[in-house]
Amino acid sequence: MKLAFSTLGVPGLPLPDVLRLATTCGYHGVELRAHPEEPVHPGLGPAEREEVAAEFKAAGVEPVGIAGYVRVAAPGDDGPVIEEIRRLVDLAHDLGAPYVRVFPGADPEQSRQSADAIAARRLGTAAEYAADMGVRILLETHDSHRTAAASIRVLGLVGHRHVGSLWDVMHTWLGGEQPTESYAALAPYLGYVQVKDIASPDDTAPLPLGAGVLPLAECVEVLSRHGWDGWLCWEYEKRWYEEAAPLEGLLTGGREHLARLLNESA
Q: Residue 164's pLDDT band (boundaries 50, 70, 90)?
């Protein structure tokens, strides 16, 4: 498996510094949070995109995914949602990133059937464009569809190879699933895996990997046992928890912890 980290953990950090951290701390990939407050986002022009792609290539680091904030199950018109997905797909294509992350984001007042159908319809429409661009759209296990069981209700309806799953191990665990259950459901759709650690279900502030309660060893073990060789991406939610320790000082230890888990599961 290959190791990456998300720029959610280093909010606003200039890309050259992000890439320097990756190379210095032993990571081969970076997930880019695609928000206007970040250096890389869909508003970049062609020349800026070329520069970003060149910086990644020069550093020998891969752009793993573009982490967007589209809510594909949310009520409202399809048009703006599909257009936002397309903008993310365009950015991923231009930077050479294979994946785009989207959220479910259903409204609590929506019925399960309605939310699933809306999400599947939009993802199915966007999938054709993504296929033409060589990019895969990943529905994250998050918010209204935090478990693998909920996510595959949507993915099964879509049935397109350019729509898959991003497994956030915190959300499936908070949803009551064991790693073996989550993997079994998501395996046919799995793009990559987000790892993290927290103190408890009631305290989800980010911790160094291995310092909390999430079943990271079990997640790595089930992935290894099935020969999965994709990306493990550390999503340290520093942007939402200002009091959390800076990620810069934790990256090397996090990589060493994941390496130990990988060795133990081999």
A: very high
DSSP result, 40-95: S-TT--HHHHHHHHHHHHHHT-EEEEEEEEEETTSSS-HHHHHHHHHHHHHHHHHH
- The pLDDT > 70 percentage for the chain reads 100
The closest of 107, 2, 132, 6 to 60, measured between CA atoms, is 2
Q: What mean pLDDT is reported for the chain? A: 98
Query: Phi and psi of 161, rounded to 5°?
Result: -70, -15
Let me know how many helices (H) and strands (E) the chain has, helices first.
9, 8
The pair of structure tokens assigned to 78 is 């399809």
Q: What are 190's strand-pairing partners?
A: 165
Pairing relation of β-strands 2-6 and 29-33?
Answer: parallel
DSSP 2-33: EEEEEGGGSTT--HHHHHHHHHHHT--EEEEE
